Amino acid sequence: MDNIIFLITRNDPSIRKGGSLATKTFINMLADVFNSNIVVMVTSSCDETVFLNPKISFVKVKARSFFEKLSGLFSIQLHRFKKEAQHFMRNNHKSIRFVIFDGSIVAGDIVNMTQKMNIPSITLHHNIESKYSIDEKTNTTLWGLTGYFINRAERNAYRKSSLNLALTNKDATDLMNLHDPSKKCYSIGCSDPYPHDLHDRTDQRKSFNPTNIKIIITGSLGDRQTEKGILSFLKNCYPELLRSYSGIKVTLAGRNPSKKLRSISEKEKNLVLISNPYDINDIVREADIFVCPVSLGSGIKLRLMDGLRNGLPIITHFNSVNGYDDFVGKKWFKCYSNTQEFLVAFDEIVEFLPKLERISVAHFYHKKFSYEAVKSKLFLVLLNQMHLLGLKEMDVNLQNSSFLNK
């Protein structure tokens, strides 16, 4: 196996979920940018057929047994990949150009080995992992108790990686301030996993009926952060909206909804739940307003792209604005931190809806978050930092870089 880039990820890039979609996008872009083959070490559940580029191959690692997980708790093994990754690097170290850690948890202990073997490394930080683990109190984070060890792994990854990348400007700045202000972290953004054109139907102004306003909320509906945000919205904002807009309809659409959300949707006549939709875009386009009520976590909330891609006006909690700095201040993009601010934002959006040209929203989104726009940012960062990775211009695919001449 010659001339390879070795990527290790805890995410399953074959499923439709925030972190997994970001990983899938990053893998596809690496295959476009570099001439090397991409070898991805991934969980055994990954469906590799979702990747079409023949340069991408996989090494699958099976789940740990109950006893392995239990012993891992005592030895602070935060993931299943250390042993397999070390074995792969020992057998292929002469062929590996550099290693990419998709997330600081997987990088935290393996980066020590890349240093010893003099293999350059990149860590792609999806978020501030320690903050995410505290907010995401589930069994996978021991209900937030692993925060100290995750922060330690993140710090080690940041300080020992040859290059650090983040998805948002805020996360890049926070990581620098937390772990090493003298070492820069570069923001590259995120996009859809593939290039795509603007939807034809986006160009049509949707008729707006003020007596039948349709709200759409999307995301992984079984995740704690998503569930908590939606429950807060339904408890605090939704009843107040009904006072002024009695005909309002709310659709929840996404992956694996929780029992609580399923139970509420069965009782509330104005609430529709669509579980695991085949194409989220078809559902989003039928709505009037996109709402993101998530108030926990860090990183970029990719679900907002569902609305922006289809030209919908956005109302989002301030905590979910990270990564969307260029959108704040637009008449069709509103933020809130409490119920009163939500109601004000909603009234302003409703007033603006008859004037909204969806294609203008979609165009602005495409300019900032299209696959090619984000790939160009990634390419330029890597091109300017090639010396850190021991690369030369012959290692990158300049034919895929026509944007440099624009």
Can you describe this structure in just a few lines?
This protein is an alpha/beta fold. The protein has helices at 18-33, 66-74, 82-92, 104-116, 129-135, 147-160, 169-179, 224-244, 259-267, 280-284, 304-309, 339-352, 358-369, 371-384, 386-389, and strands spanning 4-9, 37-43, 56-61, 96-102, 121-125, 163-166, 185-187, 214-220, 249-255, 271-275, 289-292, 314-317, 333-336. The protein has 15 helices and 13 strands.
Outline the structure in words.
With 406 residues, the chain is α/β, with parallel strands linked by helices. It folds into two domains: 4-194 and 370-405, 3-Layer(aba) Sandwich (Rossmann fold); 200-367, 3-Layer(aba) Sandwich (Rossmann fold), CATH 3.40.50.2000. Helices cover 41% and strands 17% of the residues. The protein contains 15 helices and 13 strands. The strands form two sheets. It has a seven-stranded parallel β-sheet with strand order 3-2-1-4-5-6-7, with helices on both faces. Helix 1 links the parallel strand 1 and strand 2 (37-43). Helix 3 (82-92) packs parallel to helix 4 and helix 8 crosses helix 12 (339-352). The mean pLDDT is 88.
Helices and strands in order:
Blueprint: E1 4-9, H1 18-33, E2 37-43, E3 56-61, H2 66-74, H3 82-92, E4 96-102, H4 104-116, E5 121-125, H5 129-135, H6 147-160, E6 163-166, H7 169-179, E7 185-187, E8 214-220, H8 224-244, E9 249-255, H9 259-267, E10 271-275, H10 280-284, E11 289-292, H11 304-309, E12 314-317, E13 333-336, H12 339-352, H13 358-369, H14 371-384, H15 386-389
Parallel strand pairs: 1-2, 1-4, 2-3, 4-5, 5-6, 6-7, 8-9, 8-11, 9-10, 11-12, 12-13
Helix pairs in contact: 3-4, 4-6, 5-6, 6-7, 8-12, 13-14
